[in-house]
Amino acid sequence: MVLGELPAGWEKAELSEICLVNPTIDKSAIADDLAVSFVPMPAVEAENGAVDVSATRKFGDVKKGYTPFREGDVLFAKITPCMENGKMAVVPALHNGLGFGSTEFHVLRAHLGISPQFVYHFVSSRSFRHVAEHNMSGAVGQRRVTTPYLSACTIPVPPTAEQHRIVAKIEELFSELDQGVASLKTAREQLKVYRQSLLKNAFEGKLTAAWRAAHRNQLETAAALQQRIARERLARYQQQLADWQTAGQPGPKPKPPKPLPPLTAEELAELPELPAGWGWVSVSQLLAEELCNGKSVKDRKGGFPVLRLNALGDGKIDLSIQKEGAWTATEAKNYVVEVGDFLVSRGNGSKHLVGRGGFVSALHGMPVAFPDTMIRIRLMRRLVDFRYFGLCWDSMLVRHQVENTARTTAGIYKINQELIEAYKIPLPTALEEQQLIVQELESKLSEADQLDQTLATALQQADALRQSILKKAFCGQLVAQDPNDEPATALLERIRAGKSNGMSTPRNRRKSG
């Protein structure tokens, strides 16, 4: 953090001047069976300064290989990404007055006259972390803020009384902000529930009940739908065979469709009941082509474009999120996406993200292929509207199937073609009803999405306001200065005098243990 001109009575100092950095403790007088607080890295929350010190261990189990600290110390996560995420906290009361935690914590123990909360708010500010991030040392994935760097960081030091006024004001304003942020987050969660409620009603036929009542004499039965699916699959095979023969029989001969028996009574009994004119179908019954895994391609400048996994999002494909791959247009031919293709994520570290899909609504510019992290689904358009399929895929009806069947390996949840083919979709037999559902959902979901974006913007503004409060706090603009306060120069002189006399002046003089 770059410090500008400071108010009268303030001074600049290095953190090591106002705090003991990573202080040690005398362990000789502490019994091994003494219970002490234990704080692993996950016990410190990001951004908000909360820390759980309820866990305990015997002193003998933690006296080696862990970081010691006391009540009032400031914990500062030094390793990536914990430091960037803001895992910092002021230590509350501890079991038997002593705590031990991860070796990835730096400990700052403020000297007498220095507010630990003031130090915490300074080192946890976004601007301080941003500069610290660019001064970390070590290899990728193991980069750390070093002790020498942290010790030499400059901090503004107001008079002691003003430090306390600043902390009180920060906490007052943050408390108000937190209430507003909590309300915004609650509203976003309620929107998620509303979205799934809409999808549930849509795919139980409730949104189009009036349409079906007006067309009751024209509705196809579920059994007739199964027969039509069989005819469509056979016609598709015959067309593929004719095209193959007309083209001079290039490549392998098309395979006849595999028999796909309708769902059994046992399978149907486990699924929600559908209205007249609807039927349960498996994904395999709707395929215009066999499912296709993408291809793994290395990066190569000037190569054929291929999507990145994060191109999948919000039920759509962002074709602009791509890289240049080490393959030719001929090699990529079978993996080029088309309008109406539905692409699915094959694996993810989160069960709630594996199998998320999106459809290609339009092509822009040159063609692009899809990678091995995705599976392509191409549907028979005369049976199912691809937009209907995409919205249904995002509903809990399908999500439950995906999450219940995803297999985990080394912490990665995965699905495959066999699993996808077996997933069940509730399908209106009339394309017109499918399209009406799409129209209704897109209208209502668009409104929900706009509101969600408004809430997201408000959350971003709240975070920016939080950082603005901290910026004002550390340049003397948050609270008024009092000319009667003892200037920081006197405070720093006392701290230096204590050091020169061989005595540190920590804020808390109690002995550990």
- Placed side by side, the strands forming the largest sheet appear as 2-9-6-7
| C-alpha Rg (nearest Å) | 31 Å
What's the rounded overall pLDDT mean?
92
- The helix content, as a percent range, equals 25-40%
Give a count of the beta strands, DSSP E runs of length 2 or more: 23
Biggest β-sheet strands, sense, barrel: 4 strands, antiparallel
Low-pLDDT regions: 509-513
Helix tally?
15
> How would you classify the helix and strand content by structural class?
alpha+beta
Share in β-strands: 15-25%
- Write down the overall geometry: elongated
> N- to C-terminal separation?
37 Å
SSE blueprint:
Layout: E1 11-14, H1 15-18, E2 19-21, E3 35-39, E4 56-58, H2 59-62, E5 67-69, E6 74-77, E7 88-90, E8 99-101, E9 105-110, H3 116-123, H4 126-133, H5 147-152, E10 154-157, H6 160-202, H7 209-214, H8 222-246, H9 265-269, E11 278-282, E12 292-293, E13 299-307, E14 312-313, E15 316-317, E16 322-325, H10 329-332, E17 342-345, E18 347-348, E19 357-359, E20 374-377, H11 386-393, H12 396-405, E21 407-409, E22 412-414, H13 417-422, E23 424-428, H14 431-473, H15 488-500
Parallel strand pairs: 3-8
Antiparallel strand pairs: 1-10, 2-9, 3-4, 5-8, 6-7, 6-9, 11-23, 12-20, 13-16, 14-15, 17-19, 17-20, 18-22, 21-22
